[in-house]
Specification:
The chain is α+β, with helices and mostly antiparallel strands. The chain has one domain: q2cbj1_9rhob like domain (Jelly Rolls, Sandwich), CATH 2.60.120. The chain has eight helices and 16 strands. Strands 1, 2, 3, 4, 5, 7, 12, 14, 15 and 16 form a ten-stranded mixed β-sheet that branches. It has a four-stranded antiparallel β-sheet with strand order 6-13-8-11, with no helix packed on it. Strands 9-10 form a two-stranded antiparallel ribbon. Strand 1, helix 2 and strand 2 form a beta-alpha-beta unit. Bound molecules: 2-oxoglutaric acid. 2-oxoglutaric acid (AKG) binds next to strand 7, strand 13 and strand 14.
Length: 355
């Protein structure tokens, strides 16, 4: 789909998935307990699920996506990684060094080998029709309109592939990266494989969103995690965290202030794939991507997709700014600036902010 065509779409629509199953999406049976607090089926959604989300900062919708939808997303992932949907650039944050992935050299490799080269690809809805439509999948939108607002917009999609041996992501809060004006940011983490402790499922600290505080972060040097920064000095211990093990097709919704992380995939030969979309209330401005020419209070990033209700700022139009890019796994090192927390603390405020 041409990007230019996409910005004309006022609201994303969902057309369903084709029915052919892909062998890569078939998993060995696992015994993931789905009768836990915070786990709901589409039939069980209601007051209790909304209350759980508000109190604990997350909820799990088991069976949110069907096996056919999961298979279609996994097939699309292969096409994306093979470069069939368009170019992706490697994100190069300041002085960090990352290797390039040579897409042409992937032609001879199997699907599993190709996708294993990537850890995470951002903004996949910008060049993939399938990923674009998944933004507004009906079960997903039902929860969003229940817990966020009748009016919901999306600004980010991320495809996590996490083959065996790939790192996790350290403790963080998503509003630290994507600030909203009304703290309405929410992640929808769609499991494209059964996600377990062994293959690197999400971990959350229930209730940690309720402070409304963004704790500081530093550029850790822990090889268990990718190059994204790690939160510290928050009033919780690792023992307060719970693993969110889920069967493929589940959607884990989590508040943008919730502390969460994932560990490396420690299995042999099993993937832990997930599609993660980020949404917020359409009523809030989105001061994302700092602009020199406008104050943060007025900055409103408009490369967004409305998935429910009305956009109060429709009169501003939308923009087509972001492009798909590859997030570095950090396995070749994250470059300069990685440090132990104690030496990070000794740096001046100026030096810390540069990191
Ligand atoms: O899926 C993962 O491993 C990490 C995802 C995550 O932390 C996020 O989407 O904010």
């Amino acid at each position: 789909m041409p990007i230019g065509g996409m910005v004309k779409i006022e609201k994303a629509c969902y057309y369903g998935a084709s029915t052919t199953l892909n062998i890569m999406s078939i998993q060995s049976p696992t015994s993931i307990a789905t009768d836990q607090p915070g786990y709901f089926t589409p039939e069980q959604l209601g007051e209790d699920s909304i209350r759980f989300f508000k109190e604990k900062g997350y909820l799990v919708l088991v069976g949110g996506f069907s096996a056919q939808e999961v298979a279609q997303l996994n097939r699309e992932m292969v096409a994306i990684c093979r470069g069939e949907r368009g170019e992706m650039h490697m994100r190069n944050d300041g002085n960090r060094q990352h290797g390039e992935i040579d897409i042409d050299a992937l032609a001879e490799l199997s699907d599993e080998e190709v996708i294993s080269k990537f850890l995470c690809i951002h903004q996949v809805h910008k060049f993939s029709d399938v990923m674009f439509r998944a933004l507004a999948q009906p079960n997903l939108v039902r929860v969003l309109t229940g817990v966020v607002s009748p009016n919901v917009k999306c600004m980010q999609s991320m495809l996590f592939i996490k083959a065996s041996g790939k790192p996790g992501q350290a403790w963080h809060q998503d509003e630290d990266y994507i600030p909203t004006r009304d703290r309405s940011l929410i992640g929808a983490w769609i499991a494209l494989d059964d996600a377990t402790v062994e293959n690197g499922c999400l971990w959350v600290i229930p209730g940690s969103h309720s402070h409304g505080v963004l704790w500081p972060q530093y550029p850790h040097n822990n090889p268990d995690y990718d190059c994204a920064t790690m939160a510290y000095d928050f009033p919780y211990a690792d023992s307060d965290a719970v693993p969110v093990e889920v069967p493929a097709g589940s959607i884990v919704f989590f508040n943008g202030y919730l502390l969460h992380k994932s560990l490396p995939n420690r299995t042999t030969g099993r993937f832990r794939r997930a599609l993660v979309n980020h949404y917020m209330s359409a009523e809030s401005l989105l001061p994302w991507r700092h602009r020199e020419d406008i104050s943060n209070a007025k900055n409103d990033y408009r490369d967004i997709v409305l998935v429910a209700g009305e956009d109060p700022y429709a009169w501003k139009g939308t923009e087509d700014i972001s492009r798909a890019y590859i997030r570095p796994a950090g396995q070749g090192g994250c470059g300069d600036g990685r440090t132990e927390l104690e030496s990070f603390r000794k740096k001046s405020v100026f030096e810390r902010e540069k990191a």
